[in-house]
Amino acid sequence: MTRPLRQDAAERRERLLKAAEEAFARDGLDVPLHLIAEKAGVGRATLYRNFADRSALVLAIFVEQIEDLGRRTRARLDDPDAFLWFLEQLVALMMTSAGLSALIRDLKVEAMEPVRQGVREAGAEALAVSQAAGRVRPDLTVEDIRVLALMLGAPSRAVVSPEDRIALSRRSLELALDMVRPQGGART
Known about the structure:
By secondary structure, the protein is mainly α. The chain has helices spanning 7-27, 33-40, 44-50, 54-74, 82-96, 98-104, 113-132, 142-157, 162-180. The radius of gyration is 18 Å and the shape is globular.
């Protein structure tokens, strides 16, 4: 069982995540980790105490982004189209994190479980809300969220130009939204 971090340690970890996310977005994935530590106002030892390597740091950023998506989705549960909004936000997140996903592609399957679980949890309540409102097919399950995430994430893993990646992501979203709506055709 993992003990919760002390408040000061948790704050340092959050500063590291924020600094890393900004640095990766601004300077690319090869930014030296010591610069991230400096930006966060901590030493290298603190960085490595929290994140064993670059992949662990990127994975933590993904988990944080998914948790944020879950919070934002829960705030919209009064909207009958909450699940459709969730899928749109998931694609937007994948498009902005395309480079990050390339870095963790080689992680062991078990290491990605927090991301998979987070995506399911982030969309589960929205799925129920949209199904109850008749906006989403009644036969979709929480496990289908993972299938949709894999389908929608494919363009962010494609080796194409950024423009093509955006076009493919948008088209994937259009097709997925059509598939999840009731008129998209029910499975037999």
